[in-house]
Amino acid sequence: MNEQDIQLFVGLVTNYFKTTTGIGGQIGTPYLSNARDLELLDYSAAIGISGNQKGVIYFTASRALARKLVRLSGESQAHDELCADMVGEVANTISGNARERMGAGFMISVPLVITGRPDNLRLPTRLPVVVLPVKWSEERAFVVICLALN
Amino acid sequence: MKLLIVDDSNIIRRALERSLQDFGFTEIHTAQNGRQAMDLFEIHQPDVVTMDITMPEMDGLTCVQLMTRQRTGVKILVVSALGDRHTAVEAVKQGADGFLLKPITAESVRTSLIELFEE
């Protein structure tokens, strides 16, 4: 992971919120972390990365943020299943969009979605973990990027 | 005209269905993976298909290839988050008529479908 990679994901996250909601998300200062210290929120979705890179990309969001996104997508009810699905779709879109720069060898898995706050998170232990704090419509989320060249 | 929406995300299937409700489709069917999509494709013979790529069971590009081999004239719009040029080119090679990059909006979906028929 280098600075250009981080900037790529900052741009993709901003674009996601701006395009789908008309409200751009604010991305805080990215920081390095590790699996033990990560703050996970109410819904989390993981995308496994393989091919020219290896690792995982997480999107984790508060219930309030997920519900707002679901309602803005046109749903009248923002129940648990739809919130979890929405978080999975955000993770999938951000990861898939990254292929514009990472290339077709940047292979992404289908999302694995976790509802509730897991005690621990599976991340490759030897890879750097970069966290992008997201604030959108006064609600919180994080994008967790754990990548290295394969 | 019949529409088949294929995406493993329920929220995307529902959003696509809402976006395309006013297009005059007599039937709208939805599938959550490639295998189910192929079953529904044979049963309902849709005129238009929106197709995700990254899905469990069978990926969307394989579906596009199988569908266009089975029946000519079906219009297929690939709706995917995969942002590289290679994927878009590959989708067209397999027989897709258009490619819409996620994230989507109701407007981008409707515009892409109109363009599909203008071609």
Please, could you describe this protein's structure?
The complex is a heterodimer of chains A (150) and B (119). Chain A has helices spanning 3-21, 63-72, 80-97, 99-102, and strands spanning 26-27, 31-33, 43-51, 53-61, 106-108, 112-115, 129-136, 139-149. With 150 residues, chain A is of the alpha+beta class. Chain A has a single domain, classed as CheC-like (Chemotaxis protein chec). In chain A, strands 1, 2, 3, 4, 5, 6, 7 and 8 form an eight-stranded antiparallel beta sheet that branches. Chain A starts with a helix and ends with a strand. With 119 residues, chain B is α/β, with parallel strands linked by helices. Chain B has one domain: 3-Layer(aba) Sandwich (Rossmann fold), CATH 3.40.50.2300. Chain B is 46% helix and 20% strand. Chain B has helices at 10-19, 34-44, 60-70, 85-94, 106-118; strands at residues 2-6, 27-31, 48-51, 75-80, 98-101. A five-stranded parallel beta sheet of chain B has the order 2-1-3-4-5, with helices on both faces. In chain B, helix 1 packs across helix 5 (106-118). The interface between A and B is medium-sized, with 30 and 25 residues.
